[in-house]
Specification:
The chain is α/β, with parallel strands linked by helices. The protein folds into 2 domains: 210 residues, Periplasmic binding protein-like II (D-Maltodextrin-Binding Protein, domain 2); 96 residues, 3-Layer(aba) Sandwich (D-Maltodextrin-Binding Protein, domain 2), CATH 3.40.190. The chain is 37% helix and 16% strand. The chain has 12 helices and 14 strands. A 5-stranded mixed β-sheet has the order 10-9-11-8-12, with helices on both faces. The protein has a 3-stranded parallel β-sheet with strand order 4-1-5. Strands 2-3 form a two-stranded antiparallel ribbon. Strand 2 and strand 3 form a beta hairpin. Helix 3 packs across helix 9. The protein is globular and about 65 Å long. The N terminus is likely disordered. The structure holds glutathione. The site of glutathione has 20 residues, from strand 11, helix 8 and strand 13. Belongs to the bacterial solute-binding protein 3 family. InterPro entries: Bact_solute-bind_prot3, SBP_3_CS, Solute-binding_3/MltF_N. One of its GO terms (biological process) is amino acid transport. Keywords: Signal, Transport. This is Amino acid ABC transporter substrate-binding protein.
Amino acid sequence: MTGKGKTALLVTATLAAGLSQAQAATLDSVKERGMLKCGVNSALAGFSNPDDKGVWQGLDVDLCRGIAAAVFNDPGKVQFIPLNAKERLTALQSGEIDVLSRNTTWTSSRDTELGVNFTGINYYDGQGFLINKSLGVASAKDLDGAAICIQSGTTTELNVADYFRKNGISYTAVVFDTSDQTVQGLEAGRCDVLTSDLSQLYALRTKLSKPDEAVALPEVISKEPLGPSVRQGDDQWFNVVKWTHFAMVNAEEMGITKANVDSMKGSDNPDMRRFLGEDADFGKGMGLPADWAYRIIKQVGNYGEIFEANVGQGSALKIDRGLNALWTEGGLQYAPPIR
Ligand SMILES: N[C@@H](CCC(=O)N[C@@H](CS)C(=O)NCC(=O)O)C(=O)O
């Protein structure tokens, strides 16, 4: 390399370091504040929803509790900030929240144009349709001329437009600002069909006065990889959020649960020792203690545990693991190793 080339590289590296230093403050500010600010859905059963005692519950909620466990050794140090679909990304951009964990689809435009980075996929979803059984329709292809309730500010609107155009059928969009309004719209007969992410259809169906009269059509018309996101320009914080999810997935794969994690201490298995921070310190690169992964599992649980409790068989939704099973079980949940 020429001297000039080297200088240019050095300048670029220095600039990059300066830039990331200027912005790489999230972990520090979270620690100073003593609290993580986590943006969530205001009421989506299974993902984020306050229970009857006002305690937040859900898969997206537990991801934030996992981050708080890693940082503070206390999953309670999270302030949950409810956000609707339109507000969510702005709240992240403006610094109102440290992490967005709100059934948000990872798309290229959101990832590259909005100053945010998705850290992974904590729920593989797809868009579907919920109809009133009395409509007598068995396939989405038979929905020609239907009125469809849709929520604005979501990926849903474009998917429906694409699907109907591709299939040469027409529809009328009935657009609302909140998901409750879309449910009321279906109930009041303002639309024949409600469309949203399939996981959300399960949750929204429970809000109908007669849930048994509504049925989901078999078609899944899009990929909706849902995951947490953080602001761009803060790699350390990006890593903390990314590896919280990966630790949960790795723990499930290794058979480490909330109940047995303590008994795994002192194991001869090198992977286990690394995971628990017994030999090497894989926390320091993220500004976390060596037992960061242990803290997450001990206080929140592995991915399978939080899945089953919130959206799976231990919940009202009873969603199958499906695509969200571990890769070793034919699913897509796969985490790079901790080493
Ligand atoms: N995954 C889609 C849809 C997410 C979404 O916001 N869905 C609606 C429909 S259930 C929702 O959560 N609404 C609740 C609210 O805005 O309060 C996206 O990221 O755009």
